[in-house]
Known about the structure:
By secondary structure, the chain is an alpha/beta fold. About 30% of the residues lie in helices and about 20% in strands. It has a seven-stranded mixed β-sheet, sandwiched between helices. Helix 5 links the parallel strand 4 and strand 5 (about 150-160). The longest helix has 17 residues, at about 225-240. About 40% of the residues are buried. S-adenosylmethionine binds near residues 37 and 86.
Amino acid sequence: xxxxxxxPFRHNIESYESLYRGEPAFPGAPAPDxxxxxxxxxxxxxxxxxxxxxxxxxxxxxxxxxxxxxxxxASKGYAVTGLDSSSTxxxxxxxxxxxAGAPVRFEVADATKLSCYEGRFNTVVDSALYHCLDHxxxxxxxxxxxxxxxxxxxxxxxxxxxxxxxxxxxPMEAVPESDIRTTLANAGWRVDxxxxxxxxxxxxxxxxxxxxxxxxxxxxMPPGQAEQMRRMAERMATILPLIDxxxxxxxxxxxxxxxxxxxxxxxx
Length: 268
Ligand SMILES: C[S@@+](CC[C@H](N)C(=O)[O-])C[C@H]1O[C@@H](n2cnc3c(N)ncnc32)[C@H](O)[C@@H]1O
């Protein structure tokens, strides 16, 4: 997934790796002050999902980042594999798992391919990966997950929505509901539930490259994307000084899907 010439500022595998290394995501952007999604614990909504009994069997955490969701699930007794395209994120995740004494298998892999995991997982957890992919990437990812899972597997997906939660809007491209429904159905996934929720972000991640892109870069971005970044930066500059726990609630969709066969029929 390379950057399209028309959209050199879209986040992709290389820009995420740069952020984890503490380097600017794009040439000319400031270095990040923090990783916006790294809250050093599992996402509370995911912990609730587990407590409600939604997770079963062998679990894939796709786009696991620094690994806290996978580590949490492993600590609850699940067999968990965490995959991320960033080797720096995977190194960090392995170190955290070692410290936590949690037996997670962390591997570097592109979630749009997943060629070595045929028919393997019963549950997929996607905590903010889907919105990182472009349209073709999302289609390839949904198809790759279909290949990597067992019949009847569940996929729990959290991705940015266009909602406004207490004045906060998504820090990057929000995914329309129709994109999720069409992409998942075409790849053989049945959407059982799609609703609003929030993803907890780390405020220090919004004072660097996510929050303060220079005007020179914003002017070279596609107009819709630049407008989103300007609006988000404005909101963050107003809100962040009022937050004292370092956490911000970002608007998301939560999706529960079941693996059907390729014609969209559920096996059960
Ligand atoms: C917004 S972060 C979320 C990380 C983690 N799931 C969490 O909740 O903290 C998205 C992650 O997806 C990873 N990623 C982006 N594109 C990917 C791809 N094609 N395959 C695997 N991981 C990818 C990034 O490196 C990053 O770690």
